[in-house]
Amino acid sequence: MSRFITVVEVGPRDGLQNESVLLEPAEKLDFIARLEACGIQRIETVSFVNPRRVPQMAGAEEIAAALSPTVGRSRIGLVLNLKGWERAVASGCDEANVVVCASDGFGIRNQGSTTDEQMAVLAQIMDLKKAQGGPPVTMTLSTAFGCPFDGEIAQDRVASLCQEAAALGVDEVAIADTIGAADPWMVHRRVEAVRKVIGDKRLRLHFHDTRNTGLANAYAGIEAGVDILDASCGGIGGCPFAPAATGNIGTEDLVNMLHRGGFETGLDLEGLIQTGQWICERLGKTPPSSLARAGAFSLKAAL
Ligand code: ZN
Known about the structure:
Structural class: alpha/beta
Distance between the termini: 37 Å
Number of domains: 1
Bound molecules: zinc ion
Radius of gyration: 18 Å
Low-confidence stretches: none
């Protein structure tokens, strides 16, 4: 049997969060429904941030309420603080993805707190979950391969933060290349270092394609034994304030590479290509993903 790779779709959250066009909750729900129709089983649907700070993520409660619980579907809410956790629990999210920044420079600007403060919040969340219940918690360590403010992030620091999160009892640990600073060899080394300290805890990878290393990094992660990767349909994302920033690796690009390599994903590649084209049209942008441009490889008569 060929190896199964789980693709976690982050387009409705990481993708849309960084686009300048604002979508209504109904349009986001349409996007989510199209992605799930392609076979996506885990999907970041909402972010419980303050919508005044991040207007793209407004309507989280409305979106969560409209998604009726479905067996085999996990709708993930992004959580940055205790308030976000309370909202995730109240909204009935299937998973809460708590973000901890590996660097203080990014953490203070993005979440208004240091890495230590964010780890303390994660610990509080795990305590609350124990006492009052709540969805499974995953921890994503952002800027784990480099920070635009603090520079290089030491591998030991990344490993020890992942170890700490694992010891707190999270269900999954992810390391994220928030700004596209990683290279494939670095990915391999960091995966090995993290794996060593988190035991058999699930490990997920999150890459941005800012410097055209996204798929190479995904390949390196898979070769190093990781079975779970984030991706964003259409490759949407970026940053409205930084023209050179790009989105996550495109879901259709990743799935194409995996299928060509003989891996299983359970996903409909043609459907993903169409969904990527549809969302980019809605956002008024040329799709960043390569598959949106070139299509899947097939035997067509040469022109
Ligand atoms: Zn990201």
